[in-house]
Amino acid sequence: MTDAFQPKQWVGEKYSPNLQKWLAKNDGSPWGTARVWIAADATYWIGWVDDDGWFYGTRLMCVMVDGRKAEVYAHPAVPEGVIEQPDFWAHYGAVGRCAVDQDHTRGFIGDETRWAVDGNTRECLWCGDCRQTLRRWQEVVNRQAWEIAPTPNSPLTQLEQAA
């Protein structure tokens, strides 16, 4: 683990409060040496490998959503195609939750302060490295659906004729 792993110093809205709670719950356990891994599908994992090669971990996004309730699973080995990210904690310390949302497409609880909006543009205040432009468009939607048509002897037709 590097000096960059400083969860008690990660204070502010750009950091995940659920990750903080999860790390605090597991303080003093092997999670104190938790490392972050990324899969080919861009899924981040948080975990550690024991002396027998077992990988204990969970998806980092589960931790960010569920906090203390995020469950840990044991895998006989590090899942294939999953690569450790040794600089993750330093990156997270610098940019917060943007570390797991580098495309800036996810919404987070408490992300109301993430953006500085000026007209049709916005800049990320958490990492300072993303600028987006609002694009507007209209879409024409043609719809069709089958509907019940009354027949001459249906009760609905008879009610209409009686009225």
Would you summarize the structure shown here?
By secondary structure, the chain is of the alpha+beta class. It has helices at 17-25, 60-66, 88-95, 155-162; strands at residues 35-38, 44-49, 55-59, 73-75, 83-84, 115-118, 121-124, 131-133. The longest helix has 9 residues, at 17-25.
Query: What integer value in Å does the Rg equal?
Result: 25 Å
Strand proportion: 15-25%
Low confidence ranges? none
Number of strands: 8
Count helical runs: 4
The share of residues in helices is: 10-25%
Q: Give the ordered list of helices and strands.
A: HEEEHEEHEEEH
Strand count, sense and barrel status of the largest sheet are: 5 strands, antiparallel
Structural class: alpha+beta
Terminal residue distance: 82 Å
Spatial sequence of strands, sheet with the most strands? 4-3-2-1-5
Shape summary: elongated
Round the mean pLDDT to the nearest integer and report it: 84
